[in-house]
Write a structure and sequence with these properties.
It contains six helices and no strands. By secondary structure, it is mainly α. α1 packs antiparallel against α6 and α5 packs antiparallel against α6. The chain starts with 6 loop residues before the first helix and ends with a helix.
Length: about 130
C-alpha cells in the first residue's frame, strides 16, 4: 500500500478535513438552534440579549458555511494537482491558535489538522522546487 504524500494529496485531505469540521460543528450544535423562531424573524429583535443570537453566530451566521466552501475549493485545487497559496495554511493556523488561546482547548484544535496539511504541502513543494 503506497502512502502518497504529494502536495496535491495533502491539499485534498486538508479540504476534506475542513468540510468534516464544518459538518461536525453543525451536527453538534444544530439541535440547539431555535429554527422556527429564527424563521419567524425573532433574530431581528436585538433588544433581548438572548442565547438565540449566540447560537445563530455559531451556526449559519458563523464560519461553517464559509469553511465548507473553502474546503470544497481546496479539495478541487488539490484534485487538479495544484495547491493553495502558503498563506492559507498559515492563516488557518493563526486563527486556530488565537481561538485556542482565547477560549482554551475546544473544537478549534481540529483546525490544526488542515492548517498543518496545507503548510506541509506548501513546504514540500518549496523543498522539491529547489
Amino acid at each position: 500500500m503506497s502512502t502518497d504524500t504529494t502536495p496535491s494529496r495533502l491539499t485534498v485531505w486538508a479540504g476534506h478535513t475542513m468540510i468534516l469540521i464544518a459538518v461536525l460543528h453543525t451536527a453538534m450544535f444544530a439541535w440547539l438552534a431555535p429554527w422556527a423562531s429564527w424563521l419567524a424573524g425573532d433574530l431581528r429583535d436585538r433588544s433581548d440579549g438572548n442565547d438565540s443570537m449566540v447560537t445563530f453566530w455559531a451556526l449559519p451566521g458563523g464560519f461553517v458555511v464559509v469553511l465548507v466552501l473553502l474546503g470544497l475549493l481546496v479539495s478541487r485545487v488539490g484534485r487538479q494537482g495544484q495547491q493553495v497559496p502558503g498563506y492559507v495554511g498559515w492563516a488557518l493556523l493563526g486563527w486556530a491558535a488565537l481561538a485556542i488561546f482565547l477560549i482554551g482547548p475546544s473544537g478549534f484544535l481540529g483546525a490544526l489538522i488542515p492548517a498543518g496539511l496545507l503548510i506541509a504541502a506548501n513546504l514540500t513543494t518549496a523543498r522539491t522546487a529547489h
